[in-house]
Amino acid sequence: SGQSAQPSSGAASGGQAAAGGNQPVEIRLGGGFSSEEPLWLMQVNPELTPHQGKSYTLNITQFRANADRLNAYQANQIDIASIGQGATLVAASQGIPLKVIASVIKETPGKGFNTPFMALKDSGINSMADVKGKVIGIPDFKSPTDMWARAAIRSAGMDPDKDVKYAIIPIPSMAEAVKSKKIDIGMFPQPFGATALKSGEFKEVFNAKTGVQADEDFLSMFVNPEFLKNNEQAVKDFLSDYVAALKYYNENGTEARKLLIEKQKVKADPDTYINLTDNNRSTDGKVDPEGWKAVQDILLQEKWLDKPVDLNTIIDMSYLPQ
Amino acid sequence: MDKRLHKIALIEVVVLLVLWQLLAMLQWIPEYLSSPAVIGKELLAMVMSGDLFSNAAASLYRSLLGFLLVAVVGIVLGIAAGYFKPIGVFFTPIVDVLNPVPKIALLPILMVWFGISDTTRVLLIFLTAFFPCFIATQDGVHGVKQVYVWAAQNMGASRIQILWKIILPAALPKIFDGLRVSLGLTFVMLFSSEMIGSSNGLGLGFMILTADMAGRTDLMFVSIFVIALLGFLFDRILLAVRARLLWWSENRG
Amino acid sequence: MKKGWNIIVQYQSLIWIVVAWEIIAFMQIMPERLFPSLGKVVVVAIDLISSGMLMENLPTTLFRVFAGFALAAVVGVPLGLLMSRSAKLNDVMQPMFSLGYPIPRVALYPILVFILGLGSASKVSLIFIECLFPIVLNTYYGATRVGKIYLWAGQNMGASSSQIFWRILLPATMPTIFTGLKIALPLAFIIAVLTEMIGSTIGMGYLLSYMSASLMQEKVLACVLLITLVGYLLNLLLQVIQRKYVFWQ
Amino acid sequence: MSTQTPAIDIEKLRKVYTRGKEEVTAIQEISLQIPEGKFVSIVGPSGCGKSTFLHIVGGFIPKSTGTVRIRGKEVDKPGPDRGMMFQESALFPWKNVYDNVAWGLEVQGVEKAKRDEIVEHYLKLVHLWDFRNNLPSELSGGMKQRISLARVLAFNPDVLLMDEPFGALDAQTREKMQVELQRIWQESNKSVMFVTHDIDEAVFLSDIVVVFSGRPAVIKEIIEIDFARPRQLDVHKTQEFMDIRNHIWDLLHQEHSKSGEDEF
Amino acid sequence: MSTQTPAIDIEKLRKVYTRGKEEVTAIQEISLQIPEGKFVSIVGPSGCGKSTFLHIVGGFIPKSTGTVRIRGKEVDKPGPDRGMMFQESALFPWKNVYDNVAWGLEVQGVEKAKRDEIVEHYLKLVHLWDFRNNLPSELSGGMKQRISLARVLAFNPDVLLMDEPFGALDAQTREKMQVELQRIWQESNKSVMFVTHDIDEAVFLSDIVVVFSGRPAVIKEIIEIDFARPRQLDVHKTQEFMDIRNHIWDLLHQEHSKSGEDEF
Ligand SMILES: Nc1ncnc2c1ncn2[C@@H]1O[C@H](COP(=O)(O)OP(=O)(O)OP(=O)(O)O)[C@@H](O)[C@H]1O
Ligand SMILES: Nc1ncnc2c1ncn2[C@@H]1O[C@H](COP(=O)(O)OP(=O)(O)OP(=O)(O)O)[C@@H](O)[C@H]1O
Ligand SMILES: [Mg+2]
Ligand SMILES: [Mg+2]
């Protein structure tokens, strides 16, 4: 399916205001439910976003799964998607037109929070060697978490298809699944990781970076090229506001999260959430092309990706403020 | 409505809550399952802040609109398909084929046409809850005694009059059986339909999702509890309407 | 020839739908990736069958559907009949159904998973719960509408309560019971698929979510097509049974 | 319309019921012409095909072969020109007595005031005005039958088809109803086709009595009865009445011994 | 059991139907003692409370006040000692004719071979053996009534309660059934309570005829009839028969003019 006609009818909905005068352009952004704090800040703190309401307006829709977001994107219901790196690569290799324009959150080795895979303290699982024959809980197959787990197993010289088993567990019930011994090791993103660590019952066996040593742009944003063409200025303004919010968040994490709780943007347990250690984030909104290449190689190796994507054609950092 | 039934319902709920609270206090069930006290506190807070009402209103609007659509289309089409053989022959294969389709799979297509909008959500509710109503109505029409129709034809009633004044009331008991199942499904689908993403962030299903994603099971239970309560309320209203309309039937309540 | 034509007339609605679908796909009214031609979908579906993917996943799903549905029928029908006979039981059960049924059970699925694990037990239980309501309600209301003269006649001939229950109330309620079963069976199927989509490593729902993760709508639709086909066949089976048991209506 | 056209014209009517591969011939072959304004009774053994015959004339069930014409027009569906009173109760269980009787008039577009007047008239005629607010399920068998009578009379069809209309009534009520029916029929220009098991009733009411054979039905004899109208109850006691009655009795009796042999 | 105990003993029976706030008194007050083995007929105007009375004796509906005893035992629920034949059809629509008749026997635990024999016997008695494989919906009104008769006779209760059992039969079939019923009753030691609108039938069959008043029912008169048994059909022609018959007719007629006045 090399033909990539979609999404193309964007001119009808997103881009109409481009030529006109002062009418702000509506940017329809599809995101998820976690790790998008800078984007949420843009909604609750207009002081950070001088262009919002002038050259563009922001309309964020939250989706549960990557597939939902991508469906909505293909159905031309969103112009920008905040979505996982793997999903972006898969989509691009399927010929879905997109341009990656900014990083949202990273998994950087040794910097910030790295998503841990944890077992019970008294489980007897102390090192990678003990993982052999155990059951690992992940929320979804072919997801980044799946990739992390498999890469970690490989790095310890085991075969990820033979030496361990996987169980699909929704993240909210991960802790219970480990405690009740339905699985041996579970994956804990924030804020679940913070809660689990606070309880004192769990210990880390390995983490996202054990196998994947690259600087991953765990979540990034891509835009519909058609939309971009018609609304270049609006996207630029949006990204400039976004980077401002990102900066603010990087510098004032605790206050920012407090605000998000206050404004009901986040429903997590306040104490844990406000004080949690966040993952590393880009300072200027840029993604790391090296990281993308590394991840693409892994995906190719796992055969989750049929053919490589020319990263130069999909990554474009030129709309970010220089 | 039956006072006795209410009392029993109340007792059942209280017993369940007490049991749950006890288990939670003894820590026999995981924290993940929260406890009535915690949920109650949260519920109260949401009532005070008014959040609950805006969310409930958004959800109710969608589910009731969906149900209304189900009732109207389901009954009209069910009667037509039950009474006019060609219409029945026409619709039976569609219904048989579409009924077992997981409607969620149709979402991408609905989305292209109707966007991420309430229209899509209402349609999703409709597509699921339609079938019980349709099937029960059609079966109800098939069960109407031939001699009633004969008597009406004999008095020169038009087709419309026969449908409206004979078939409808005679099939009504069974139609209500179907409506009750549909109403229940409407509230179940309220959750699934809001799962597809919400832009204004209002709705009980959306609340469940946000809370679940943030590990706040207490909030999740608040939403579930409110959905159940609303479902119960509308079920009772439906039963009251049923008793009203079926006053002539031997089982009117 | 005549027979063939009759079948075409009978299934014309489906033919129309297919034709409309193909036109939309051909004219590219909808984005091609979301709305592939059915020809493509069928090819993918056949591929799913021949590659053994279907046979790997279908039996598990069918087992879950059958187990949950059968359990609901075996419990629901007698329960509905009993409720029609005992005001006390009815008083206890009705509020439970009013209050319990509207709960979004899929949202509570994780709790079932906590109690019963991720295997078939939790899925079968959810299917059971889902099917119970339509079966019980239809049975209950159907039974309350059974002409009391039939019960009188049975009592009069000295039938025991259990004979009246199984041999008069049950057959007299049969048409309505089948209405309930007809409503419940597709629900069983849908819930099986949905729960398998949430957390499973096998089953038609797993296949569906696996395909949707690979972002190819024709694969997703091929799964839906196969699921639909199987669901349709199950429904057909139910209708055959119905014709056998309610011949008298 | 020419007065030559019979009100009811039945030619070579035949009816076979089928279920799967089995066939039951209910009516072998019946031809019958009834002039306008006649009162015709049909008598015959139980299960011979009388109700079937009336249902076909009423247009409710399809015939197998033959033709049925009412005032020259071929019957193919039910219509308000032929008012049918069914053997079993066809009262609507969801309407009270009053509304059951009023419904036919409403359908015909009779205006409210007029309708009320007619309903009251006929409910009083059958002595059930007091029960107008009751549901059919709250009535006795005979009461239901009287309501059905009121219902069919109220909507005033040209042809009355009545299937054992007085079967569940006690002798006195029955006589009253017979007298009323005769009066109503005479005052209007109705044709009546009346199925009964009561030979006296048939002879008392009818211009013509049609005797059916046992199943499958053929016409065994057509008997014209020409007592003066209006007939008084004491006509029962005349010798002529007795003679006709005994003749019909004998006809049916033959039929019976015959069918009795068949069935054993 | 003492022979003094009446088979059926009814004391101060009263029945009021209620719907919402409305009340209909169906039975005012009835006391009645019937010795073992008697054939009792009940006659009365339409809607007077005869079916209600039988339903209470059968144990199907609750009485308002009073007591009903069968062979000394108070009636509180239906039982196979009292076989009831209902005014409307109570045949199971999901069973064919054969199984409908066999069912009562099966429930009583009668073994297959014996059961087949009994069912065949009674189906032949009512001339419907040929229809054993048909469903009730495929039968005529009179045929259904005969199947109901076969069903209640087949399972052989001590007390027979029959509510207009022959109402839908033609005169000849009716006579045959009367004769058969008399024979069966005489051969066994059954007590029969028989509701009918046919005064001749009541007089011909009964030891005792109970005449009910119009609604609400009280007993107007109890008439003992002592023609020799077995009675032949020609007993109808005796003067004594005529006299009794006319007496009952007059009783009912009074009742009628009275109730007629009431209702207008
Ligand atoms: N379920 C009921 N609810 C209210 N009233 C009833 C009910 N059943 C019967 N009645 C009333 O009780 C009275 C007696 O009815 P019943 O059926 O006993 O009469 P019947 O003597 O058998 O009459 P028929 O000869 O016409 O069958 C009637 O006036 C009737 O309206
Ligand atoms: N729906 C049906 N399917 C098959 N056979 C039927 C059906 N209805 C009637 N019959 C048969 O047709 C014959 C005539 O039935 P019909 O009801 O016309 O008799 P009838 O003369 O009205 O008898 P009765 O005086 O007992 O009411 C019967 O043998 C009956 O078994
Ligand atoms: Mg008949
Ligand atoms: Mg009666």
Provide structural commentary.
- The complex is a heteropentamer, with 1 copy of chain A (322 residues), 1 copy of chain B (253 residues), 1 copy of chain C (249 residues) and 2 copies of chain D (264 residues).
- Chain A has 322 residues and is of the alpha/beta class.
- Chain A is built from 14 helices and 10 strands.
- In chain A, the strands form 2 sheets. A 5-stranded mixed β-sheet of chain A has the order 2-1-3-10-4, sandwiched between helices. A 5-stranded mixed β-sheet of chain A has the order 7-6-8-5-9.
- In chain A, helix 2 packs across helix 10 and helix 10 crosses helix 11.
- Chain A is globular and about 65 Å long.
- The two termini of chain A are 36 Å apart.
- Chain B is mainly α.
- Chain C has 249 residues and is an all-alpha fold.
- Chain C is globular.
- Chains in contact: A-B, A-C, B-C, B-D, C-E, D-E.
- At the D-E interface, helix 1, helix 4, helix 5 and helix 7 of D face helix 4, helix 5 and helix 7 of E.
- Bound molecules: adenosine-5'-triphosphate (2 copies) and magnesium ion (2 copies).
- One adenosine-5'-triphosphate sits at the interface of chains D and E.
Secondary structure topology:
The complex is a heteropentamer, with 1 copy of chain A (322 residues), 1 copy of chain B (253 residues), 1 copy of chain C (249 residues) and 2 copies of chain D (264 residues).
Chain B lengths: L2 H23 L10 H14 L1 H33 L1 H14 L8 H8 L3 H25 L3 H9 L4 H36 L9 H10 L3 H29 L8
Chain C lengths: L1 H9 L1 H16 L10 H13 L2 H33 L1 H14 L4 H12 L3 H25 L3 H9 L4 H38 L5 H10 L3 H29 L4
Helix pairs in contact in C: 3-11, 4-5, 4-7, 4-9, 4-10, 6-7, 7-9, 8-9, 9-10, 9-11, 10-11
Chain D lengths: L7 E12 L2 E13 L4 E5 L6 H9 L6 E6 L2 E2 L7 E4 L11 H11 L4 H14 L15 H14 L4 E5 L7 H17 L3 E5 L3 H7 L2 E5 L6 E6 L14 H25 L1
Parallel strand pairs in D: 3-8, 3-9, 6-7, 7-8
Antiparallel strand pairs in D: 1-2, 1-4, 4-5, 9-10
The structure holds adenosine-5'-triphosphate (2 copies) and magnesium ion (MG) (2 copies).
One magnesium ion binds next to helix 1 of chain D.
Brief rundown of the structure:
The complex is a heteropentamer, with one copy of chain A (322 residues), one copy of chain B (253 residues), one copy of chain C (249 residues) and two copies of chain D (264 residues). Chain A has 322 residues and is an alpha/beta fold.
